[in-house]
Amino acid sequence: MTAPLKKINILIVDDETDLREALVFDFSRMKCTIFEASNGQEALEIVNNNPVDIVISDVKMPHLTGTELLKKIREIKPDIPVVMLATGFSDLTESEALKLGAFALMEKPINRKKMFQLYEQALLLLNDS
Amino acid sequence: MKRYIYLCVISFITFGAVAYFYFLSKSGSTEEHYKFTNTIKALKQYETNIEKDILNSRSFLSTNYDTVVTDTEAIVEHCHSLLQQKNFLSTDVVRIANQYCALVDNKIDDIERFKSKNAILKNSLFYMQKVATESPLNAANFKISGNEYIMSRQLLRVALAYYMLPTKESLEAFNAVMKMTAVFKGDFMVSMRLHANNILMNKSILDEYVKSLVTENKSRITLDELSETYTHEYKKAESSASIYRNLLFFSSIGLLVCIIYSVFALWQAGLKLKDANENLEFRVQQRTKELKESQDIIVMQQQSLISSAKMSALGEMAGGVAHEINNPLAVISLRADQLRDCIEETPIDKEMFLKALDAINKTTDRIAKIVTGLRFFARDGSSMPFVQSPVAPLIEDTLSFCSEKFNKCGVTVNCDLSTAKNYSLDCRPIEISQVILNLLNNSFDAIQELPEKWIKIEFEDYDSKHIAISVTDSGKGIDTAIQERIMQPFFTTKELGKGTGLGLSISTGIVQTHNGKLYIDNNCENTRFVMLLPKVQNAELEKAV
Q1: Chain A residues with CB inside 8 Å of B352's CB?
Q2: Which helix (H) or strand (E) holds B19?
Q3: Distance between terminal CA atoms of chain B?
Q4: What is the ipTM metric for this complex?
Q5: How many CB atoms lie within 10 A of CB B150?
Q6: For a Cys-Cys bond, which of B29, B93, B403, B456 suits B472, CB 3.0-4.6 Å?
Q7: Residue range B189-218: mean pLDDT, rounded
Q8: Strand partners, B530
Q9: DSSP 3-state of B223
């Protein structure tokens, strides 16, 4: 893993504290600026008020679900790649997520290697634009 | 039914006819009839006898009236007896009988007169005969001439001839001789002529009597009329009586037929009833069998529904458990990977390492909690004994099973067990846990679409003998109209495929076996289910209020 050229602002959204902390742990070691939210509403506020580059979001959350959040982000800041974290039970399939404009969908339990790969791809996308 | 009414009516009519005809067919006393006919017969005989007697007494030689006397006496006697029998005779017959008796009286007189006239005549004849048959030698005794004598004999001859055969010629002859003898003036001839005249006179009178007594016997005619009239009437009465007797016979037959038919019809009806009963019995048995079969099918279907509900509940639960374990699993996976990265670095970041390990431990504790909650469903709680179970852990463990799901869906759970700290409940903990979970799940499902989503669990020391565990949610209560029905099996307000409606009925059952009560608190503005349970279970414990 190579450190990126500039600091990336990453928003991690999950109502599961432990999981969020685990993700925060990893991405902070990669020298990203971390924003955290425990539900969709919080996340939306953060997106509106801060320069967020990448969003990683759970689907099943109170107040505003991941799906809703995705739609909203696509409306207001369509440049931001959004990675959805779904369980097998969360009513969001990969094809649906991609149709809604998600960058990717990952199923829990998370494959860490794949997660970093997606991260690299997202960076490339950002650098291109 | 109508048939039987007709039968009764016909039987009554027939019976009435039988009685009526019986009384009408009684003919007059046969004894009286025979007495009367015998009287008539005797009278007829005596009439004949008298006629014969009269005729006989005309004969020159007979002067015997004995039989006439006895016969007339007999006839009179029979007339009396005839009149005594008036009572049973008709008025016509009585009238004729009276006529006859009157005629008989006349006849008696006539017979007497006949007898006297006949006597005179006979006397004269006899005298003449006697005188005329004396020998000529005695003519001198009479002091008559021979001529006178011859003339007297001549007179006798014509008198006799006229007596025998009173024709015009014999009368002329008689008169001629009478004229011739008128010459003789002596006593002898005078007396002869007197007697001859007697004969002449009385003969016609006598003949008249004979006529009336014999040839034109009025009484006999009347007697015949009497006999005929009576016979005619008797025959009529007999024939009508015999008609009635026939009618009686036939109506009796008719009555007998009615009776036999009634008996037969009753017997048939009895048989029919028996048949109908058997048929009914059979049909009832069939129906019962069918119903039993249907019932068995229904029971089977209910059981299959229950087991499929259990299966779907199990499936739901399995899905829920998997869902809830998924996140902790993801954490463990990430952290384990991070540990691996950590250990390969040099120098090893000890802090990071420990942090990751702590996270793993914490997460495994979470999974343990879920698994602990599962134990309530691993076994059937209904055959377990009642045990003293601390209330607080019971409720907490149940809650831990579903708290993740609730939080994920934005449902706030408020559980205040501060008052439950020292309480132990005499119960089957697995079953009580199931009831609490059922109430929690029901609340969760009910408030999904509401703006406010919360569930509150409370514990209360209700009274000296009971405790109350209640589950309240942010819903606005349950319609009183359906409150009773929701406790029943297979009732659900959830959409098709979402709920089986068995949860509350099973919960109610569990609470009842614990001698408790599960009810809805209508005093609360929100939806509140209260489970009232006795603290101690024993045989003498009364049911909860």
Answers
A1: 25
A2: helix B2-24
A3: 60
A4: 0.88
A5: 14
A6: B456
A7: 84
A8: B470, B519
A9: helix
